[in-house]
Structures are given as structure tokens and as C-alpha cells.
Amino acid sequence: MTNPDAPRHIEIRDGDQTVAAAEVAASKEAGGTARVSLHPASGHVAPGCRANLVDAVIDLPEVQASARLEATIPLGDGELLERLRERTDGTVVRPAGSTALVDADVPSGSQPGAGQEPGGKTSGS
Q1: Helices and strands (H and E) in the chain: how many
Q2: Residue numbers of the domain that contains 66
Q3: Which band of pLDDT confidence, cut at 50, 70 and 90, is reported for residue 119?
Q4: Which of 61, 89, 99, 124 ranks highest by number of CB atoms within 10 Å?
Q5: Distance between the two ends of the chain, CA-based, in angstroms?
Q6: Predicted model pTM
Q7: pLDDT higher than 90, residue 72
Q8: pLDDT, position 3
Q9: What is the mean pLDDT of the chain?
Q10: Which DSSP string do the residues of 29-84 spell out, in sequence order?
């Protein structure tokens, strides 16, 4: 099991290029709040990479043990927002400058959505 006190860095890579990354910090108590910042690479990113990032984050044990998710995403990133809505419950989105703040409930036993794009490689540290 991972240390819930230590923030995690997750990356989605296409070959040797990082196409999306996230920073994840979860409460050390079960049923707490996971705080996530999602960062897609600038420029063209293959469809599905952003959704794969959300899946990798939501599937982390420390996020699954959380009741709430607070995420920061780039304003207007439809793929990230759509996958967050698919993988969480009670999703509320508010704009904040050039970002969107997402508050949601983490369903227990959350599974990837039916339209998940295969093949995104993930790595965590």
C-alpha cells in the first residue's frame, strides 16, 4: 500500500513523451478528500490520453479510499471534465481564472467508463 501522506505524481506517456500528468494528495483518513491537479501537455495530445489520466488517478488506492475529490483542470478541457463526470458522482464545476475547480463524490469501487481508450501507459512515483 502507498503512503497516503506523500503526494503522488502520475504521468501518461506516449513513447518517451509525457502527454498528461497529475499531482495527487489524499487525506490520510479513509473517507477524506483527495486533491488532484490535472495537467495535459500543451499542443496536440492524442484523443483518450486525458481520459486515461483521469482513470489512473481515480483508480489509485488512496483516491478510492476517499469520499470526496477536489480537482483542478484547465478551463475548457472537455475530455478531462467528461471523464471526471463519468467516474464520479455529484460533480460540480466552477470556473476560476484559467482553470476549472471540480468537486465530486468518489463512488466506492469506481470502474473505468465503457468508452475508455486502451493503451495509455501510466507511471507513478
Answers
A1: 3, 7
A2: 8-111
A3: very low
A4: 99
A5: 13
A6: 0.80
A7: yes
A8: 52
A9: 85
A10: STT-EEEEEEEEPSS---TTHHHHHHHHHHTSHHHHT-SEEEEEEETT-HHHHHHH
